[in-house]
Give the backbone structure.
Amino acid sequence: MEAVFAACVGFMSACGIFLMLRGHTFTLVIGLTLLSYAVNLFLFASGGLKIGAPDVLGASNDYADPLPQALVLTAIVIGFAMTAFAVILAMRGRSDSGNDHVDGKEPNLEWKEPR
Amino acid sequence: MLYGDGLSALLVCLSCLLGFCVHLYACAGDDQRGPFFHPLFMFQIMGINGAFLTGDIFNLFVFFEILLIASYSLMVHGGGKAKIQANVHYVFLNLIGSALFLFALGTLYGATGTLNMADMAQRVALLDAEQQLIAKAGALLLLAVFGLKAAMVPVHFWLPKTYASATAPVAALFAIMTKVGLYSIWRVHGAIFGDYAGELANVAQPWLWPIGLATIALGVIAALASQSLRTLISNLVIVSVGTLLITIYVHQLDATRAGVYYLIHSTLSCAAMFLLAGVFVSLRGKAEDRLVSAKPMPRAGLLGSLFALLAIALIGMPPLSGFVGKALILQSIQQPELQLWAWSAILIGGLAALIGLSRAGTTLFWNTSGDHPEASTIHPLQITAILLLVISLPLMVVFGGVLTELSDTAAQHLHRALEVETLLEASQW
């Protein structure tokens, strides 16, 4: 289970980082969302993975760590708010500059012959 | 859990003093340029104070997010394309930083099983070899995150554009934001992963030295190339971050004390200069604060003297607090092999500030054309706020003895972070 879980988190972070390295706010927002999903899963696993163990003290001898779940909840709420802000900001930037490049203009990558 | 020691208390005082002066300035009219200025401002102050006061590393993250979300909105206060554009960079970089912060926290929690700073400081010394590696990865990830907030090389590129395009009171308040990052490096890498962390002792030190020097070097180059006053001040902020990184690297009691003093001075003087630049922007019409010829400024005598005083403080010349701060830092670096590099870097930083600010002052006040000063007035609250900040600089020298004692206490509390019994007791409640 650990291997599958780790592979999922790793794959999602890799996709998120790849998308964030593009220069456009749309892909950036999607990349950030993927990365924050990966972060939430990662935090969830930081207390160790256990199957069938309740996260309530005293219910059984083998219990799951409840703290990471509280952390994940906080991280989800904060991540959601931040993503909402980022989307609004990206839309505003898009309407201001007419394109969704993070620098406000598409870079001119064509090679010009020196005169 | 909130926990205050000498360092936290001193920095909370600093942020409140700064917040008061900046708020006073904003009440002169800048607060009317967009909705919800005052609540956002209070929210930001709350985040900053909370980050200084927390004893739990996850709460540090939460307070970081509070101050960041307030700063995202304050950053676009006043509107305009330039602000939106700079904010896109600022927001997305910090969102990535927050994601990395959470990764680091998960790693450290997995390795040490705690999020309480004092508890973690005890447990990192007892980790076995495998866990040490994981904890080290977490610690260095945290360095990258705090470095992003503190604007250290190579993640400082967002700072000049952000600070230079923000409204004057917002930029002045942001002067303390880089210091929140530096404070966190002090707490996490100076105390938790400090001298007593066993195998992981001083895990960030090998990185801090070259990064500190590079931050000063790039800040100096950018300061010399600045085309406007606000860009120049932003780059001087970067130079001061580099100087403080060096004191964190040196890691002696003396160096920490000098660093705390210099941090207070640099926050106040940079903030005052941002406020003054805001006045220039409103007086110079289309030329704003760009270093080009423009119509002469009204009240040039008063504004010029304020500018000169602040320039002296930022450069680090006597008799103002910049000189005392830099002298303390230079004095605290004892090892000859460090002295060579650190002294030259810090002194060249001062020289660059001298050249940049003299050029800026000459252009702003003397390179004028046309003889009719534009009919615009300065609000008395603006001048009062700037004067309060400027007066605090000579006061830092006059009451230098008291202040160095306070920063000495702060440094001792920071270095004594392993005396955790009190802290653990506090967390029981």
